[in-house]
Amino acid sequence: MSGATWSTRPQRICVLGATGSVGVSTLDVISRHPDKYEVFALSGYSRLSDLGNLCERHRPRYAVVPDYESQERLQRRLVEVSLETTVLAGPDSLDFVASHQEVDTVVAAIVGSVGLSSTLAAVRAGKKILLANKEALVMSGALFMKAASESRAIIMPIDSEHNAIFQCMPPGYHDNLNAVGVRRIILTASGGPFRKVPSEMLRSVTADQACAHPTWSMGKKISVDSATLMNKGLEIIEACWLFNAPPQMVDVVIHPQSIVHSLVDYVDGSMLAHLGNPDMKVPISHALAWPQRVDSGVKALDLVNMARLEFEPPDEKRFPCLRLAREAAVAGGSAPIILNAANEAAVKAFLVGDMGFMQIPELIESVLNSLEGLSISTLESVMEIDASARREASHWLRRGRSVRH
Ligand code: NDP
Ligand code: MG
What we know:
Elements: H1 3-8, E1 11-16, H2 21-31, E2 37-43, H3 48-58, E3 62-65, H4 68-80, E4 86-89, H5 91-98, E5 105-108, H6 116-124, E6 128-131, H7 134-151, E7 154-157, H8 160-168, E8 182-189, H9 199-202, H10 207-211, H11 220-228, H12 230-243, E9 250-254, E10 260-266, E11 271-275, H13 281-289, H14 320-331, H15 335-351, H16 359-370, H17 379-404
Parallel strand pairs: 1-2, 1-5, 2-3, 3-4, 5-6, 6-7, 8-9
Antiparallel strand pairs: 8-10, 10-11
Bound molecules: NADPH dihydro-nicotinamide-adenine-dinucleotide phosphate and magnesium ion (MG).
């Protein structure tokens, strides 16, 4: 991001996944600074009416929806209110707006593997990317980081932990963490809604209970991932790619208050932490304005009245997803792709009541064991492995259904 762009005109921003939790928080920050940021494109999927409202408020050049029927409906509504926004349809249109030459910054906030193509399009076009869509990096880390270095794209993590680590890292960290004195990266995890729930009771918890996160308000998929601790597992892999760290250098600690967002441990015994209220507007504002700072609208921490800060080790027996993700991080190659695809399939099935909470790690482990580990060199091979893991997950679910009936 050049200083010239900052000083001469507002940054033009494309928000992919604008109707979601991260998208809405981003638009809230943007609307506080009309002199600095301008919305160029917004995308939505199922929440068309919300997308229409966002278009009326932010007046983007483009809006992207999934299909032609939604395109017609939204375009009609926007014409009625004399808005000049052009509505586009389909995944190719996401790639089009993400790589558009007039865009400076792309907020990658689509959930899951469906966000991979547009996030990569933005990377290849050399944009500044505010990365929320961790699944894209988990699936295609090597290709993603190579494309970023070739195109000189700037990847700004807005996952709160990774944004915290970014803020605690010294200059030059990406070339060699050891050379800049980093000993460990420590990711904090709230522990989710089932932190204290015994194993036997975890079998019968519901999707609504899993989605009731104690400290963060988020979309359903990441809420379930937080409840299983798969979110932290995905974040280990995310941290390895973002900070050029081997998995052995990334630790996890449970911190129920979600005030310390992550830490960096240095060889001299210093430990740098990032603290803040648990609100995505904090990392989003940081990444949008970096290297400057802007008001996020989030109030300052009240240190004197703050509750105690507690830390405890994660329990990988009750939450096997964390172990599975760590093993996939160490294995590398196709393992993180399989892990991610099996997890997406499992979470989807859990959310619609097709299987129990503790079957999520069972399904993932079974799919990981049934597919051969491969090395990855192209996006096509990423997509093939993703598809075969999803096929394997469907077989597992069908077998489970036939046993139950
Ligand atoms: P939400 O479910 O709230 O939002 C997801 C967004 O993706 C929505 O705009 C949704 O559209 C869109 N979307 C869903 N399916 C498709 C599809 N097939 N094609 C195109 N767009 C689609 O999720 P979150 O905002 O919570 O999370 C988004 C990403 O950010 C995830 O990768 C998550 O892991 C990551 N993240 C989220 C955090 C949070 O606090 N929420 C924190 C850190 C990371 P629609 O709603 O219109 O259907
Ligand atoms: Mg996070």
